[in-house]
Design brief:
This protein is mainly alpha-helical. The protein has two domains: 69 residues, no CATH class; 90 residues, no CATH class. 41% of the residues lie in helices and 5% in strands. Helix 2 crosses helix 3. The longest helix is centred in the C-terminal third of the chain and has 16 residues.
Amino acid sequence: MPEAPHSLHNDSEAFLRNAVLNTSNENFIETALSVFRFQYNNNDIYKSYCNLLRINPDTITLLENIPVLPIQFFKTKEIKTTAFKETLYFESSGTTGLVNSRHYVKEIKLYEESFLKSFRQYYGAETKYCIIGLLPSYLERKHSSLVHMVQDIIDKSGSQKKGF
């Protein structure tokens, strides 16, 4: 088996942030494998889960072989990669049960930069649009990631005719 590219073994948070925000079709698989290995090395719950599955991260070379943490873990455990005090958290809608899953956000600006980059990649600049969010029942939910994303894009659109 050929040796993995050097970047796949870089365990730096700064490297990973840069890689994720600058990924392209050409380097997507390499970036995804870097994220997987970073999470394995910096998230004790995920590492334990992979170890129980007898997954050796150095042998994973295909996206479809990256283990996915079951949603139940996000309902019963505090899933965080690296130790941090979250700036906020998002909750699932709870449509499949009584307990909502939680997604803890370390740095809201990185989260926003990530979804804005995706929006711009597929639709162009948000300033070209009048964004109107139709999210009945979501607006009442205090920790909705969808409401947060739509609100942020609405705010950045600059359109006078915008809102929910």
